[in-house]
């Protein structure tokens, strides 16, 4: 409980105070952190008291409200994870179009939709969608075991979001892999083009007898397969070649000499811009791979944490002869709560901006 409350509180403070984290994308993470924080602060202390004492001592009204809040906040946490995965998927597959549409107002509407959907799933037991309670020696507080509601809540809270997340993450993985392969093919193609252009340069720069040929006889520009224009300077023409060309063009060709010399001098100036662009692309791809890895870890921890509970929850409602026992059900129940502690840990380890923000908050 302490880990959940402190960890998710740090996530919320970091997003609220750090300029680098105040992005629309992180609003979805803030929604997840708020739901997990409330699970640790409001739900788990009363659940722990019930587990330790063996019965419910907080009254019938709070029992019904607590059960509804339990389903509500856990469902909001799971659906926030689903929303984060969808946001990542749309950012990868429809980058330009989706980033233009992902306005603050639309993102806020998506987050509100998650919480409204969670409320729709959690509220029916409060209005009577549950079986009458069985008499017992001690007061109990159990989730609704009506078969219809169990299936309704299990599919809305877990199975549908889990299916969406698995499908989306597989599509993200395939898209990232195909993008990496296309990038590799482009590099190989560029290398082959450079080799071919080098051969062509040797063909028109040197004669078979070994005498140097005037560069003016060569074409001034060559078109590459990618549509960009390659100057003689890009093909390796040196200032010595330009000087020789000047010696051969004493009669009315000095203007051309100046143009080629300008291209030779201009080429090094253009190179840093190209390198900077490549560096930016490398950083963007590294961030994309890291974000995909984080999403995969969050998804895996979510499924491993919640799958045992929802399997037993449905099995207990459908199979009357199955004796699961209170211990097995309690272990699965608390394993699901552990997912709320894993999310801020994953952010801390893999996200540099969150790590910096946490260090700043904790150690000034």
Automatic annotation (TrEMBL):
**What are the protein's UniProt keywords?**
Cell membrane, G-protein coupled receptor, Membrane, Receptor, Transducer, Transmembrane, Transmembrane helix
Q: Is this entry keyworded Transcription regulation? A: no
Classification from the root reads: Eukaryota, Metazoa, Ecdysozoa, Arthropoda, Chelicerata
Stretches of Basic residues bias are at 252-261
Q: Where is this region: Disordered?
A: 237-282
Task: Enumerate the spans annotated as G-protein coupled receptors family 1 profile domain.
Answer: 7-347
Q: What topology does the record note for this protein and the membrane?
A: Multi-pass membrane protein
Q: Which GO terms describe its molecular function?
A: adrenergic receptor activity
Where does this protein have compositionally biased stretches of type Acidic residues?
A: 237-246
> What's this protein's name?
G-protein coupled receptors family 1 profile domain-containing protein
Places the protein is found: Cell membrane
Question: Which Gene3D superfamilies does the record associate with it?
Answer: Rhodopsin 7-helix transmembrane proteins (1.20.1070.10)
Name the SMART domains on file: 7TM_GPCR_Srsx
Q: Which GO terms describe its cellular component?
A: plasma membrane
